[in-house]
Amino acid sequence: MGAKGAARLAHSTHSNGFRPCSGLACVYMAKHKTAISAHKRKRPQRSTDVERPQEPRAQRPTPTPPQRSMRETFLGYHRLTVPEIDRIWGDCVFALDTNVLLNIYRYESATRDDLFRVLRHLRGRVWVPFQVAQEFYANRVDVIREQSAKFDQLSKTVEAVLTSLNDGAFKKSGFLRVTEVDGLLQPAIANALQFIGQQRAAHPDLIKEDPYLETLVEIIAASLGKEPSADATKKGSGEAQGRIDRKQPPGYRDEKKPAPDRYGDVFIWFELLQLAQDRKRPVVFVTDDDKDDWWQIVDGQKLGPRPELRQEMRKAAGVDFYIYNPARLKRFS
Length: 333
Hints:
The protein is an alpha/beta fold. The chain contains 13 helices and six strands.
């Protein structure tokens, strides 16, 4: 650059000390600026430049279930309506009590045949708790012997009529004409004793051969509760004793029985609760038991199962519970 060019360049310098670019200088500066911008874009992010993670969104609170009505909360204390009973009968499992099984040896032939016919009709819906089956087999032979012994007991009772008639207390009253009364009764007593003897002869020896038992096991088949383990029995005995001490139904009416017999009804109840939980179906307990630790009894009238039992069943399994005696099963015959 000559002297004149330098003078012109110096003259064009701004007062702030910077000169405007021109010519090749401007082209150089533009390219340099572009390279710098590209370098900045490629520069790796510093740790301070890393995007912070977003704060987790607050979860919506779980909606509170609606409050149940008074009737729903205490449904076990309300009498079932006819449609409700029909729904239960249409879907329930019928659980048999020990006395129902043992009564096949006590019933007359027609009643026993009716029971077997109903149970066959309900095959698949009939179920026997393990505790019931265990009690049945433990007491079966004794019940058979008791029923056979009743023939002798009846004969002795009939014969005792003549003995009482001829007792000195009556003979002292001459106007009673006891001798003539004795003459009238003698033939009738003889006929009665003969009839009892015929019944005894026709009665099967169920200890040697038991067709009733074979019919029963054929109907029940595998519809039987599971045998509890020794640990489960021990634990259940403690829980049962606690319920008996609290007078919590069922079973506390058996508190005077020796252990473990006193726990029988409670063990049955535990099995019924488990049955309802497993099958999610209502349970109808068929029993000839009349005690008020199963039944709600008011002025001698059975109103149905104890409300506490229905409440406990609904809480444990969400289904209803009811009790009937075997005679009510005839609706299915």
